[in-house]
Amino acid sequence: MSDRPLAADTPAPLIDLPEWKRFALAAQTCAPRPDALDLIEAPGLALDSSGQRHSSDLMAAGEALLRARDFDTQRARLLAGEPVNVTEGRAAWHTVLRAPEAPAEVRAERERMDAWVRRADAGRRWRHVVHVGIGGSDWGVRLAVTAFGYAGTWRDVRFVANIDGHAIEGGLAGLDPRETLVVLVSKSFTTAETLENGARAREWLTGAGLDPAAHLAAVTARPDRARAWGVPDDQIFRLWDWVGGRFSLWSAVSLSTTLAVGVDVLEGLRAGAAAMDAHFTQAPLAENAPVRMALAGVANRSVLGQGSLNIAPYDSRLANLVPYIQQLDMESLGKSVDAAGRPVGVPTGPAVWGMPGTDAQHTFFQWMHQGSDGAPVDFILCREADHHWPAHHRQLLANCLAQREALMRGKTLAQARAECLAEGMDAARADWLAPHRVHPGGRPNHLIALPRLSPYSLGALLALYEHRVFTQGVIWGIDPFDQWGVEYGKVLARGIVAELDPSSGQASRADTAAASGAADARHDASTRHWIERLRRGGSP
Ligand SMILES: O=P(O)(O)OC[C@H]1O[C@](O)(CO)[C@@H](O)[C@@H]1O
Asked: According to the UniProt record, where is the region Disordered (predicted)?
């Protein structure tokens, strides 16, 4: 970690800026204008922001706010690979992983991995791939494999992330070890889940009388650790310290994607993302899709108090987009202090949640329409489908547009009452039922339309969200590239694991405390109770 002083990266407190006050006032005093189509044609997708609050004053205030946050310089620093991750003193240079003119070592590693995959394809090797990784070493691959391998692939790819033993048990069940490649993906190569699950897979290979080294591949920024763990050098692919885990699918992290759906898919993802990078760099702010989404996100969260953001992909192949964006957004923006360690002073990153439509309509859309909070929604659709049932696709699209329209337009009491009367109810019943049929409307949303679900358009979509997250980080003044919050629980878990192990011979802290009649100051009473009880397993 560098000892670079924070001062150079320390923005002024947001809430002290006159530009912030102007932006907040402008956001409060304008409304969504669905009749004034507000469309940006960006690479790989179109962004319709008509469902967000918009006015020329709000846009001007947003531009002034970005200038006050030195956005141009911050963006240039991100794209130049400067250490924008201030608390860890390193770059977040994911954009270079997809740049056509990437540095030689990045291109060399791409070519080495592609050649390895092509050799495996030519030899019809690895009928089964078990991808072992978690968080950023998992979601991007799951997303791409589900998106492009939804109708099945000749290689069966399984994902094992959770430390829950059922995950690895199910991940290996029924596979022929002779035909199986286990891919361990871990930037740090220290993540407990990945190393434990990897160890079970290695035992499984050894138990089948095989040399595990021949069946293991690894992707990591620490090849030394992977080598010591037993992965041969020619099956270790590199990732770099200057890439954040949740921004890493553009690298060899996507080895399993290429094995499942081909190296062309990864190339297409990179090309779409690179085109979005160029748009993010060059488009004027008012026509810049990530910037517009970021300004709407800040207005919704920090001014209008919307606590969450719903992601509604109207494409079942994008089911894993929701957890992907959840990690990208919440691990990046789930912070309440700025780069100088001061409270930001306004609510920051929202809770991100969702589910593909139309399933979501039968699960929680009731709450979205008439619940007391509601949530801004990002609707995502593909204009063309890749199946052969156009009527299905028309229904899917109609549902997406209808839900969005209902959330925007709402329904007044008078309209609801008139509807009841038109259905033949008498006035008394109409008066009674009408309030139940009122929709407040005015719910903010984006509509993102991809021409079809190609690697290019998905790459552009993911880069759109990456840059939206970065821009919100610049406005709030927070470091979107660290994740200190994840560390605390990991450290506590390490201690508790030892205490839960009845075979370790080590008395639990709680035992020791009980024997001495003292309370264990390191645990609260409830945690102490459960350590004791769970240590005994099923016995009362
Ligand atoms: O790739 P690694 O080092 O195993 O880390 C896995 C994940 O764990 C985290 O550090 C914390 O959840 C993520 O940021 C990361 O993607």
From this structure: 503-525
